[in-house]
Sequence to fold (347 residues):
Amino acid sequence: MPWTAISAKTGEGINELLDLVLLAANIRGLKSESAKAVSGMIIEVNHNAKRGSSATAIIKEGTLKKSDFVVAENAYSPLRVMENFRGESLDEVRPGQPIRIIGWHGEPRIGAELNIAKNKKEAEKRAENFLIKLKTAMPQEKNPEGTTIAPIVIKADVAGSLEAITHELEKIKEEKLKIKVLAGGVGEITEGDVKTAATADKPLIIGFNVKIDATAKAAAERLGVQVEFFDIIYKLGEWLETFIAARRPKVTTEEMTGRAKILKIFSQNKDKQIIGGRVEEGVLTPGAIVKILRRETEIGRGKIRGMQQQKVVIQEAKKDSEFGALVEAKIEIATGDRLEAFNLVTK
Fold:
């Protein structure tokens, strides 16, 4: 096995190493294929306030040109600015060359595979498809039954504001709702923030004293990501109360409105039964859905189709009053049973 001694500190042996690599490649007949489809790998990622996201990649196969579009998982970039390690502009990059690509939409991941796209539309579509596949493949977080997750991304102008907003979210204690902060940071809302939010279901981005760039705004509309802006903490707190109320899982319960004891059965014809009773609690009204109770156990349900007192049609029977009623039920009602009227209430 060929080897050579090198020093990263002094540079000793570097030229010998490169010569050895070329010699080994020639002996094995290894050749790069610049005519093949482009493939490469992201090896470094940086972010600059003026130049935006940049990524360094190594091209393994194919040839990159300035007119191309490249895609790395959920990020893509038009090749307008390509530089070598000296910062010199390049028009073309062949296999084996390291390249710095500037002007990414989204932030590529170190280790992501780099490929070429035909045009901007295809690049956008492939980046979005990656997010969709990622979202589908992500294991669902296990939560108590009936618990709803509210995924949130936070962007603020300064670290202090970010801390205050995080504190506001930590104050929210809900039995059936869990706030999950996907990401947080300082600076304007970027396309990368939107795509991070889009990996979750019904996400929210909170921007505090920051703006959203045009690309991110378009991505939010395209991916269905809700973005809200605030400049005062207490207003954010008030808005969060409304947001939580809307996201809180709704629970439907039965609330009793009236209860009556059956005193007499006048007639029974299939599922139509005329009964006489006395109201023990609350109020009974025509149209009410009732539980039929026997020895305090529900044996069926029915509906009051009409009510009378002294042969006069009434619209309600109050506590301690007697009444006659036409009840529609498949269960045969007996003297001594009780009817319990209720409403379905969703909270």
Q: What stands out?
A: The chain is about 20% helix and 40% strand. The mean pLDDT is 85. The first strand starts at residue 39 and ends at 48. The two ends are 74 Å apart (CA to CA).
